[in-house]
Design goal:
Blueprint: E1 6-10, H1 18-27, E2 31-35, H2 38-47, E3 52-56, H3 64-74, E4 79-84, H4 91-99, E5 103-106, H5 111-139, H6 151-155, E6 160-162, E7 165-167, H7 170-183, E8 189-192, H8 199-208, E9 217-221, H9 227-235, H10 252-255, E10 260-264, H11 271-283, E11 285-286, E12 295-296, E13 300-305, H12 309-314, H13 320-326, E14 329-332, H14 342-357, E15 364-365, H15 367-375, H16 381-395, E16 401-402, H17 409-412, H18 418-429, H19 433-451, H20 456-463, H21 467-476, H22 481-484
Helix pairs in contact: 7-8, 11-13, 14-16, 18-19, 19-20, 20-21
Length: about 475
């Protein structure tokens, strides 16, 4: 089920708001998340794409005014509403001023009134967003060459969100469509992709679009953890079962009962732990360390890897039966260089996000910066793009455009037309189409090998070749590491 908008309601859990919640979800198509304390609210805001928060100022477990005041800076696009009693009087003006709340509602909460206020608040936010974009377009001079100065070219890419994933490209649209279908099932999901492509964000999105969204999402990185500790983290342990076990531990599988467990870097687990995980996937049985009792846990497993599990199976490094258990659905996140249409929308998103966090009002991004981003390879993918934008914002002055001079030295040296330069050189040096293609292929293979310092495994993975295929091309084009680095 797709939702029109997501609303976070902060209030004591014992209060009777069931009828209002049913009206929001079933009648109006909103997604409603609830929190009774500041920690729960912060986790939900980090995990989901929340559009509006309504907070009861009488909440006993949360200082609502302080929380909403902090959200003005942490989540500036989030609409904030207060739920108050009639006795607040003059204090209400102070609370509205501190929190910069859009509006307030009074108790008892009337579903029809609340729904109307939400509708008007969300419409006002969308109108304000469009007004800001139009205002930027009119303020930009003809020579500024910023992407906002070409609204027609930019507008053709429809910006979409899948929870906190932002994209406009066709590959990501297809991936998120498949992920939505997978979310409706209870099958395990295997997410593969390079480092920094957003595998964890995709896993979070799947969880929050599934029927398990009301239950916990637990996350565990499996890389670099010894078996005993990883077993303790996932299956739990009894006090005294090993050195340092000073108390019982429930384990993530039982803690997330009814929800989802996301295991990152699944390719790094040992062969012995692969057996334990396989048994859990088959039977749902959890046996804590030091215990002779077996418990049952109902969780959905989502795993992620930046290595090809299929290739690891062929190499005998990963159990084939476990691989087939994990890949109920297989989602592959494309690298950023394979979806250049996402670069402008991601850049704008990160400018808005980090501009607000750093208190720096950025008017726009120059077009040649976007062109350089599109020409750059981004080995660190979306994470590297975000870090680059954050660095640029930190260097820029309030009210400035982000230009080439704000780029890091490595990117500032690039020319947006460098990709075309290879073809031009090839045409000068060769006479036939076959020679042009071969010279172009040799240059690309050589550049990727140099980029990875002649690590042939990494280069083959980036080029989409096998190790044998890459070795054949190195031999065919007489590529040599020593000669290439001179």
């Amino acid at each position: 089920m797709s939702f029109a908008s997501t609303i976070l309601f902060i209030a004591d859990s014992h209060l009777p708001y069931n009828a209002w919640a049913e009206t929001l979800i079933d009648g109006l198509g909103y997604q409603l998340l609830t929190a009774s304390c500041e920690a729960d609210a912060s986790d939900l805001l980090n995990d989901a794409q929340v559009d509006l928060v309504l907070a009861d100022v009488d909440s006993r477990n949360c200082d609502v005014v302080s929380l909403l005041t902090s959200l003005r800076f942490k989540h500036p696009d989030l609409l904030r509403l207060l739920l108050v009693g009639e006795e607040y009087g003059i204090r209400l003006s102070e609370m509205l001023s501190r929190t910069a709340a859009f509006q307030y509602l009074t108790k008892p909460l009337q579903p029809a009134q609340a729904s109307l206020v939400f509708k008007h608040a969300l419409e006002a936010r969308e109108l304000a967003r469009r007004h800001r974009r139009l205002a930027r377009e009119f303020k930009i001079g003809e020579n500024a060459r910023c992407f906002d100065a070409k609204p027609a070219a930019y507008a053709k890419d429809k910006v979409s969100h899948f929870e906190r994933l932002v994209y406009a490209s066709e590959p990501m649209a297809e991936l998120c469509s498949l992920a939505r279908e997978a979310a409706r099932t209870h099958l395990p999901i295997l997410i593969e992709g390079e480092t920094g492509t957003g595998k964890e964000l995709l896993a979070r999105a799947v969880h929050f679009h599934s029927s398990r969204s009301a239950s916990p999402l637990m996350i565990q990185n499996c890389g670099g953890i010894r078996d005993e500790l990883l077993h303790s983290e996932l299956f739990g342990h009894r006090r005294g079962s090993f050195t340092g076990a000073i108390s019982d531990r429930l384990g993530l599988f039982r803690a997330a009962d009814g929800g989802t467990v996301f295991l990152d870097e699944i390719s790094e687990i040992s062969p012995s732990f692969q057996v334990s995980l396989l048994r859990f996937l088959q039977e749902g049985e959890v046996k804590p360390l030091g215990s002779d009792q077996t418990k049952i846990a109902d969780v959905r497993i989502i795993t992620a890897s930046n290595k090809s599990l299929k290739q690891l199976v062929k190499n005998g490094q990963f159990r084939e039966d476990l691989y087939f258990r994990l890949r109920g659905f297989e989602l592959e996140v494309p690298p950023l260089r394979a979806r250049p249409a996402d670069i402008p929308v991601l850049t704008e998103f990160f400018v808005g996000k980090h501009g607000a966090l750093l208190g720096n009002r950025i008017r726009g991004v120059c077009e040649d910066v976007i062109d350089i981003f599109k020409a750059y390879h981004f080995p660190g993918n979306v994470r590297e793009l975000e870090n680059e934008v954050r660095r640029m914002i930190a260097l820029a002055k309030d009210g400035e455009y982000l230009t080439r001079r704000h780029l890091s030295p490595a990117l500032a040296k690039l020319k947006a037309s460098s990709a075309q330069a290879i073809v031009v050189v090839s045409q000068d040096e060769a006479r036939t189409l076959k020679q042009i293609v071969e010279m172009l292929e040799a240059k690309i293979v050589g550049q990727v090998l140099q980029k990875h310092r002649w690590n042939q495994s990494k280069a083959a993975r980036e080029l989409g070749l096998s190790r044998v295929g890459l070795a054949n091309k190195i031999k065919r084009y007489a590529l040599d590491e020593e000669r290439a680095t001179r």
